[in-house]
Each structure stands twice: as C-alpha cells, then as structure tokens.
Amino acid sequence: MKANYDVVVIGGGPAGSSAAALTAQAGHRTLLIEREAMPRFHIGESLMPEVYWPLQRLGVLDRMESLGFQKKLSVQFVTNSGKESSPFYFKQHDPRDCSSTWQVERSQFDQMLFERAGELGADCYDQTRVLDVQIDDQDRATGVRVRDAQGQEHEIASQVVVDATGLQSLIANKLGLKVVNPDLKKAAIWGYWKDARRDDGENEGATIIMQTENKDSWFWFIPLSNGITSIGCVGNNDYMLKQGLKPEAKYEYELSICPGLQERLKDADFQGEIRVAKEFSYTTTRHAGQGWVLIGDAFGFIDPIYSSGVYFALETGVRAADAINEGFANGDLSANQLARWADDFKEGSSWIRKLVHAYYTNEFSFGRFMKAHPEHTGNLTDLLIGRIFHDQAGAIFDDMDGAIATAKRDAMSM
C-alpha cells in the first residue's frame, strides 16, 4: 500500500469497484479499500436489467454468463389475497439482450467486480478499515487514515476520495449530510430456502413481490442458483422489530399470513440462519466537495422493493469515475465537477422513489390502475427495467398521482 494515490475508493461493493476500475483504467493511481475479507456475504441479490450497460462498460458480461447466475426475465406481484398479476416480461417490451438480467449471489458478484478493478490497475486491499477521512477546513479531502489486515495504521494522501461505504456513509455521517425519510423507515427479516417451488419457463427466475394479508409487510421471492431461494419480509421498523417477538418468530408469523408463499414453501427446507437489517431510506444534502464524492448507498438509499440498489451502485460508480477522469484532465476536482452527474441521477431515481411510495399506499391498487390505464404498461415496465434517465420516464405519474389522491380521498369518506 503506497503513501500517495490520485484516487482512494472506500468500499469494495459494486459502486466502489466500478469507480476504482474506471479511474484506474484511465491511468490514475487508484486504491480500493474494503473493510471485510473478500468474498463476503451481502444482501441485494436481484438485479435490474439496466445493469447491462455498466457491466458492459466494465467488460464483465461474459463473466456474468460463465458464473452461472440464475437468469431473471420477469417481475411479478401477488396481492394480499394471493392473486397473482400477469408477469412483466422485460423482453416482450424490448427483445434486446439488455432486457434480461440475473439473480446473483453477491459474494461471487462483488468478488468478480473487485477483481476486475485490480485487473484494470487499481491496488485492491480487503480487511482494511478506514479510520478517518481527512477533510480540511476548506471542505477539501486530503486523504484517509487506515488500519490494514495486519493491524498497522497508514496515512494515505490522495487528490480524490470516493465514499462507497454503503449504509456506513463515512463522509455523510462525518459532515452531517444524511436526511432520513420518516415515511420509509423499514426493516427486513430474511433467510434462504432449498427447493422452494418456482414457476416454469421464463418465470423460473422471476422476482416475485408478495403482500401479506394485513398489508403491513411484503415478501421478496428471489430464485438463486443451485435451488436456493432468498425469501425476505419487509415492513415498518417498529412493526418488524419492536413487537416483542424474536426475529425468528416474527418471520414465521409473517410467512403464515402471506398467501402467495404457502404452496411455494410446502416442500422447501430452510437453510442457515435468520438475518435482520434496517432498511431506512435516506438522502444526502450534498453529494461532493473539493476532492470527495459520494456514490452507491453512501449517496442515498430508497427501498429494496424494486431491486434498484445494485443498478444505482454501478451507475453512480461509472458516472463518478467519468467525472473524476474528466476533472483530472481539466485540472478541476471541485464539488461541481465531481457531482456534475448528480442532478440527472437524482431526477431519474426520483421515479423509482415515487413508485415505492405508490406501492406503500395501501389505499392504492396497481392492478386497478393498470386496468384503467393499459397505455402505461410500457412505461411501468421501463421503470422496472431501470430505464429512468430519459424525458418520458415519469409519464405514468401524470395519471398515477391523481389516482393515488382519489384512492386516499375515497378511503377517508368511507
């Protein structure tokens, strides 16, 4: 580990590895630091099809095929009564290869990207903890202080620090930039099942979102390779974790009131242990300063329901790397330069945020809305694919916002 780099990237997940790969590829001395031993477990197995483009940019599409990940060709929703929607088939909307995607074991996926950063020239170290990001009184990042796998501390100078630390959000917490969304304080309890029943054909790898009977929670059903399925329950933090039940008992209870899961789990066996995570949605008030920039979940986090997390991580990593490379070329590492992509990204991701809020509006029915407005099927499929960075991405909300307001008003008058 050298004492001086052009770029230090903190966090070896998809955001950090993609940023490090592309700054190193451009010829900048890049250090990528991950605090855990790689490969390591991580939640967030379901990908959006739009990951195709950053993965193509990183040159790893062939590896995605060779690693044997489960193909994901559709998304389906199940109501609180167990009624299944028609699947949203990505390739029916757009037959190109970029309209299919994968369900991934994150340990393998993240390791692949971490290794790719090294192949493209980054110095990659795992089991290395960042103790401090050094930011002077002019809001300028000057480097980091780290402790390596042998317990030795190092001061490392750099011209740019990229925060890809996920929910840890080192810089945002240091500078007080995080703003939690009070309406989306969620928690997840999940685990892994062997031989849960999957659908056939193109739906074998479908992500299925299932409501529970009381609509206080929902389940994800994510088929992975080797017959393993990730099945998790998400609800408000207090509902999930503060009702006097241990996570195992809460998970079992929520399973019992999810009609969509009963037949699928009849011959399945639970594997391993129950896992718990808080899923608080938040934004950051600033996304960059002189010589520092936030990406991935360190930039902000919305909600797991539409599987946008890994795509947003890769997209922000690529965009930030491009801004950094351009900044070095122009001699400009200012906040404006390093975050020149942020406004466009926020506008696109806002459509996913609005879709999340629509799902959590119990008075509103997506099924009824789509029956009334079939002309929006393509737009909704685009959002589920992740195609959110174009002028008409939010067209569906011209009608959906009114439908939500009407549904709320009608519920209050009953």
UniProtKB/TrEMBL annotation:
Source superkingdom: Bacteria
InterPro entries reported in the protein's UniProt record: FAD-bd, FAD/NAD-bd_sf, Flavin-dep_Halogenase_NPB
Class in the EC hierarchy, top level: oxidoreductase
Position of the signal peptide: none
Residues covered by the FAD-binding domain: 5-310
E.C. numbers: 1.-.-.-
Keywords, comma-separated and alphabetical: Oxidoreductase
One Pfam family hit: FAD_binding_3
A molecular function (GO) term: FAD binding
Protein name: FAD-dependent oxidoreductase LodB
Organism encoding this protein: Rosistilla carotiformis
Source organism phylogeny: Bacteria, Pseudomonadati, Planctomycetota, Planctomycetia, Pirellulales
